[in-house]
């Protein structure tokens, strides 16, 4: 069989690529190793920046999101027992949309399939062939046996654990924060309107409203820590300690997800080789410190689909500039995550603090809360608003 674009991976990046290409009238086939049911249940991100939502809307892919996702325009820092609200919508005129990733994935799968898009779930052993030729191929296995799909382009959207990035063979730049976050989902109503960042000597903690009945929490922990070290009682004791303030109690509920994430980043340079183009976490991972990953996956998808469309109109310039275009925003977000990480994690006494860094982080926080110009610059990058970095 053959198509114009083989899209490997049905996460936000691959689903956005496949939907947008179909809407542009460019044939594609989407290949996903998991089942449809599995990817529609996988909870991950929840905050989508306004420019990314507008990008989806422009392609007719945001109807349900716009109809139901709450908008958030502020968060709260909590430290030394006090609340410090930060209103970024007022500074930027833009919002985050709170929409659990599995709902976005569910919407995008439905729109693609209902529109007649071709997809194979449960594929195995994906290999790429001839990516430096004009007619590459993807080989894989499905229930019926070995398959070969010839195409003009391969979109490698198979995430951090995928295989397509191994075919690029460029440089992978890595950074390890040396910090773990225990990622939790609780069947508990949100305890605040939006996001609460707790900066505390016992370690960073965060609260993020997801739905009226489910709330995400994070607790800083040693990297590589075992989830079993965090029974229900310990989790809630730490959340109350690190996030609770007078008038800002934390509502408890059963924990439905408990996972230790080691905070690390990587960036693959370049993001392409021959006719293979990476998009999303197959190319770059940014630790969820600033909730940027899903937004970057969509950014790549918008640019890749525009560039492929330009190719079919005889202009290969956008494909040639694809890495540069995507990585401009990726590096801004990496830098921001590092900056924010210093604020979040420098006051912690376990591991023992670096007192100099702790004072720098406090100075940074005071500037953010005391200077409107500093707050505006922060808000712009927190929402990814600047059109051109
Ligand atoms: P995905 O979502 O990992 O999708 C990749 C898809 O490829 C499939 N796959 C394969 N298919 C075929 N053949 C193979 N060999 C394959 N190998 C893998 C996988 O099954 C999967 O379906 O990557 P994509 O599309 O690049 O999207 C990236 C986002 O999922 C990710 O950046 C975000 O979830 C990151 N993230 C957050 N981002 C935000 O913007 N805002 C947030 O609030 C936010 N919170 C988070 C997060 C990530 C988290 N985790 C899981 C570390 C919270 C958490 C806890």
Q: Stretches where pLDDT falls below 50 for ≥5 residues?
A: none
CATH topology of the domain at 5-49 and 99-173 and 265-336: FAD/NAD(P)-binding domain
Oligomer: single chain
What would CATH call the homologous superfamily of the domain at 5-49 and 99-173 and 265-336? Answer: FAD/NAD(P)-binding domain
**Spatial order of the strands in the main sheet?**
6-5-14-15-16-13-17-20
Number of strands: 20
- Name the structural class: alpha+beta
The CATH class of the domain at 5-49 and 99-173 and 265-336 is identified as Alpha Beta
> What kind of sheet is the major sheet?
8 strands, mixed
Instruction: Estimate the strand proportion.
Output: 25-35%
Radius of gyration: 21 Å
Q: What hetero molecules are in the model? A: 8-demethyl-8-dimethylamino-flavin-adenine-dinucleotide
Q: What would the average pLDDT be, to the nearest integer? A: 95
CATH architecture of the domain at 5-49 and 99-173 and 265-336: 3-Layer(bba) Sandwich
Overall 3D shape: globular
Taking the alpha carbons of the first and last residues, their distance comes to 41 Å
Our count of helices gives 12
Indicate the percent of residues in helices. 25-40%
């Amino acid at each position: 069989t053959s198509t114009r674009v083989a899209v490997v991976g049905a996460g936000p990046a691959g689903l956005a690529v496949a939907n947008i290409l179909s809407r542009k009238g460019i044939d594609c086939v989407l290949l996903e190793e998991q089942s449809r049911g599995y990817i529609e249940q996988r909870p991950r991100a929840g905050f989508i920046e306004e420019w990314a939502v507008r990008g989806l809307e422009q392609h007719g892919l945001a109807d349900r999101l716009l109809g139901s996702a709450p908008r958030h325009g502020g968060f709260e820092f909590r430290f030394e027992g006090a609340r410090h609200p930060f209103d970024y919508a007022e500074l930027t005129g833009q919002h985050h949309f709170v929409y659990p990733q599995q709902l976005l994935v569910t919407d995008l799968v439905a729109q693609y399939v209902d529109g007649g898009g071709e997809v194979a779930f449960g594929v195995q052993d994906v290999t790429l062939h001839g990516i430096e030729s004009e007619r590459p191929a993807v080989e894989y296995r499905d229930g019926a046996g070995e398959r070969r799909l010839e195409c003009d382009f391969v979109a490698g959207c198979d995430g951090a654990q995928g295989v397509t990035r191994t075919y690029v063979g460029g440089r992978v730049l890595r950074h390890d924060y040396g910090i773990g976050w225990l990622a939790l989902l609780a069947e508990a109503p949100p305890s605040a309107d939006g996001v609460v960042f707790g900066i505390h000597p016992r370690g960073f903690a965060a609260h993020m409203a997801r739905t009226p009945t489910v709330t995400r929490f994070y607790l800083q922990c040693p990297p590589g820590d075992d989830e079993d070290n965090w029974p229900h009682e310990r989790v809630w004791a730490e959340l109350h300690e690190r996030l609770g303030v007078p008038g800002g109690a934390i509502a408890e509920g059963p924990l439905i997800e408990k996972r230790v994430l080691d905070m690390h980043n990587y960036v693959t340079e370049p993001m392409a080789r021959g006719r293979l183009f990476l998009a999303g976490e197959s190319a770059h991972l940014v630790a969820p410190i600033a909730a940027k990953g899903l937004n970057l996956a969509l950014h790549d998808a918008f640019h890749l689909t525009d560039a492929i469309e330009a190719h079919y109109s005889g202009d290969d310039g956008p494909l040639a500039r694809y890495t540069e275009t995507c990585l401009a925003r990726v590096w801004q977000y990496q830098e921001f995550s590092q900056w924010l990480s210093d604020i979040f994690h420098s006051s912690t006494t376990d591991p023992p603090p670096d007192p100099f860094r702790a004072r720098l982080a406090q100075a940074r926080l005071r500037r953010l809360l005391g200077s409107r110009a500093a707050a505006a610059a922060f808000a712009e990058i927190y929402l990814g608003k600047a059109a051109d970095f």
